[in-house]
Write a structure and sequence with these properties.
By secondary structure, the protein is an alpha/beta fold. The chain has two domains: 152 residues, Quinone Oxidoreductase, Chain A, domain 1; 173 residues, NAD(P)-binding Rossmann-like Domain (Rossmann fold, 3-Layer(aba) Sandwich). The protein is built from nine helices and 15 strands. Strands 3, 4, 5, 6, 7, 14 and 15 form a seven-stranded mixed beta sheet that branches. Helix 7 links the parallel strand 12 and strand 13. Helix 2 packs across helix 3 and helix 2 crosses helix 8. The longest helix is centred in the C-terminal third of the chain and has 17 residues. It is globular, with a radius of gyration of 21 Å. It starts with a strand and ends in an 8-residue tail after the last strand. It is an enzyme of class 1 (oxidoreductase).
Length: 347
Amino acid sequence: MGHKTTQIRLTSRPVGEPRDSDFEVGTAELSELIDGQVLLRTIYLSLDPYMRGRMSAAESYAEPVELGAVMIGGTVCEVLESRSPNRAPGDLVLAFTGWQTHAVVPARQTRRLDPAEAPISTALGVLGMPGLTAYAGLLDIGKPEPGQTVAVAAASGPVGSAVGQIAKLKGARAIGIAGGPVKCRALIEEFGFDAAIDHRSPTFRADLEAATPDGIDVYFENVGGPVTEAVVGRLNPFARIPVCGVVSGYNRTETSAGTDRLDLSAVLWQILTRSLSVRGFIVEEFVPTRQADFLRDMAGWVAQGSVRYREDIVDGLERAPEAFRGLLAGRNFGKLLVRVGEDPTRD
């Protein structure tokens, strides 16, 4: 007898902010296992900004999710049944099974996790895709040098908080930009940034200038919009800008003529006259060359307390759409996870 899974499927392309009506909850019968496959039970589902682009049919670096299909996403799962010699029931694994409670996948598409080394949830955060994004984007593109100033937007998130802490480990000054006094205070007290600036403050530009008396040498771009406009004015000659994301525009459905639209010609002029290096990247490009280094270095830093992390966990698969809306609006604090099922290592 086959197993059932509860799924959240994409039923329409969101216009602006995703609505509950863009999704449907349903059940499906899973196929019987064949050789090489495993049956997985989802424990944690990762929610990440890139998912907004995959909901859209607009041309992007990855194919959109088909209408009627399960929303994609990274997961931490428990193996319930296995027809692979490399996986046994009870194994905890990293997978990519999306917004659902169970899945049948090839065992080779999973990576076994050791809960004795780190909490299994970190495989979706500081020791997962967000961590590698911060590590490779900062070190390989940003290339901070001791004494230089690194500024990072969305600094309290899983990528931004890691960027600042890695910058500090490399001897640079870390300037974090975040929304609201609670997040800004945590950047200093919890994550060890040298300065934190609230982009919602009416004195944001003046605060940024005061915090960067020697200018900015690396700007790790996560948001775009007015934050970027303000930071560009503080960049030093030969500054580097790793472009990780532009979350301020992910819900936009048409070109904006408002205050968050950058003057491209003005930005290009700054790139020219200050010899700036701007490089966009998708984290997958670094997996073949940097994954092993990242896992070694970051696991060590986390174990010794040099890199701290926060998690924001909501309970229940049905809350994924609501939590995802909050993510795009900056309402979460830390790596956003949905606890889909019991975590045997915590409960």
